[in-house]
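Supplementary Data S3. Sequence and C-alpha cells for construct A.
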Amino acid sequence: MLLKILIADGKDGNLYDALSIAMNFLKNTGQMGDYSRVQSVAIDGILAARRKGVSHKIALANAAIVEVQNAFVQGMPSKQK
C-alpha cells in the first residue's frame, strides 16, 4: 500500500510527508489502531484528495486524518498503555 503513495508522489515528496504527518498525529492522539489498516485508509484519503487537486502536504494530511476518523475512530479501540 505504501508503494502506491511512493509511485504517485513524484519528485516533491508531499504525499509521503502528508502520510507521515497524519500517522504521527493519529499515534500521538491515541487514535492509532492496527497500523497497517490505518495506514491503508490514510493513503486512500491522501490519494483521493490529490485527485481532487489538493497539493499542500498539510491539507493532504488533514484529508488522511478525516478519512481515518470517519472509518475507524468511533469503533476502534485506541492503543494506550
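Construct B, processed identically:
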Amino acid sequence: MSCDPNTLAQSASCFQCLSEKQLEMVKAYLLCQILQNGGGGTGGLQLVTYTSGTPANPSNINQPAWAYDPTGNLPSLGWNTTTHTWN
C-alpha cells in the first residue's frame, strides 16, 4: 500500500463507521503492531487486558505497556515507565 496522503485518507475512510469502542481497539492493535514491528525500539509492547477497576501491573514494569478493555467499556491506558503507573 502506498503511504501518500491521498491513499492514506482514502484507506482511512472505512474507519468512519466504527464506534468509539471499536476505534479504541483499532488504536491498541495498531500501536502494538508499530511497537513490535516497526517502532525502531528495542522491545515490544506488553498488552494487559482488564474489565474492571485498575489493570494489573505489566510483567516488566520498566518496559512500555498498553492496557485495554476488550469490551470497550473502560478507557485504554498507557504504562508510565518512570512513575510505574497507568495513565
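The two ends are 33 Å apart (CA to CA). The CA atoms of residues 54 and 86 lie 8 Å apart.
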